[in-house]
Every structure is written in structure tokens, then in C-alpha cells.
Amino acid sequence: MSSSPIELVIASTNVHKVREFRNMLKPLGRFDILSLCDFPNYVPPEETGKTFEENASLKADHAAKTLGRWVIADDSGLVVPALNGAPGVYSARYAGNDATDVENRKKLLDEMQHLMDDDRQAFFECVIALASPQGIKKCVRGTCEGLLLAKERGGSGFGYDPLFVKHGYSKTFAEIGESVKNRISHRRKALDKILPSLESLMET
């Protein structure tokens, strides 16, 4: 087993997302976890993929080859079947390229005004890609199903969290607190699937 920590870059500058990853990866120990914030001169590729998988792979592969390190990248978003899958891969820029979380949520609420009950079903999807400088090693997917409220609730979380209530829960992702969310979220489910690959990295 390697004695020195392995550097693993989270290919994101989103502080909320990076913190979630750090918290979930903490039990693994032997990784020195960096993010794109540690590489201010790095310019990420444009997210031109039509699916979460294409975008996650694009981001991981580009960062791993450019930075010469192991990288995990995720692409995730909210899918509303009654809106033909929107916001989907455009979740972070649903209300425009420089849209804030607040603007994105407002647009979603406007688009869903006419939807009742079961039509407000939605799921978060997260695809995580693991890449070395030689290319993509693994790509996994996790989902979390629930309902969208007509009004925001809760002050924590980010993105669409104040609108989303997971099936079996009564509170939104913005109300349940970070530690609970990190146990049940789409990102957690995807990360659980990639953990064996990360663990085998530590053993080589």
C-alpha cells in the first residue's frame, strides 16, 4: 500500500459541491483532496455534452490530462419528467449562463405553476467520472427521487435544494442538514459506486 497520500482533484470550483465531496471522502483518509480552486490558471472545457455522463467525462478527462493528476468530476442536475426532463444538464444555467441559484429556482417555479401533485415528481441525477492522465477509468450514476414544492423551504443546501423533498422525508434538502443530505443524496449514491475504484487506487 502506498505510504504517501494520493492527490485527487475534484474538478469543480463550486464550493458547496467541493465541501460535500470532501466530507464524503474523509473516511477514506489517504487522499490529499484538491479542487480546481487550487489551480487558478486552469481553464475548464466548455460543457458541450448532451448528457450528464458526457459532461462528467469531458470535465474529468480534460482536468486529468491538463493537471497530470487523478481527477473526479461530476455532472449533476434536476430532472422533471413533466417538463420533458428540464432543467437536466442545464440545471446550473437554467435561467441563463450566469444565472444564480435563486434565478434558476424562480424560473423552475414559474415553469411548474400549472403542474399538480404527481406531475411535480422529480429526481436529482449525478454522474461521477474518475480519470487519470491516461483517460477515463470509471463512470457511475446515482439518482435521488422526490417531489418539488411550490414554495421554497429551508436555508441550507444549494441549487434546487429548497424545493426538493426526497420520497420518505417531510423536509426539503435545504432543511434536513448537510450530514443527513450527504447520506442520502444522488451524489452519495454515485460516490458509493466509485469508492471501490478509489480504494483500489490506494492499494496500487
Please explain how this structure is put together.
- By secondary structure, the protein is an alpha/beta fold.
- The chain has one domain: Alpha-Beta Complex (Maf protein), CATH 3.90.950.
- A six-stranded mixed sheet has the order 2-1-3-4-5-6.
- Helix 4 packs across helix 5.
- The longest helix is centred in the last third of the chain and has 18 residues.
- The relative contact order is 0.17.
Task: Characterize this entry briefly.
The protein has helices at residues 15-25, 52-67, 101-111, 178-184, 186-203, and strands at 6-10, 31-35, 70-79, 121-132, 135-148, 164-166. The protein is of the alpha/beta class and 204 residues long. It has a single domain, classed as Maf protein.
- Class computed from helices, strands and strand pairing: alpha/beta
Our count of helices gives 5
Residue share in helix: 25-40%
Under CATH, the topology is which? Maf protein
- Which value, in Å, is the CA radius of gyration? 17 Å
Largest sheet: 6 strands, mixed
Report the span from N to C terminus.
6 Å
The CATH architecture category equals Alpha-Beta Complex
Report strand order across the widest sheet.
2-1-3-4-5-6
Global morphology: globular
Order of helices and strands: EHEHEHEEEHH
Number of domains in the coordinates?
1
Average of pLDDT = 93
- The stretches of 5 or more residues where confidence is low (pLDDT under 50) are none
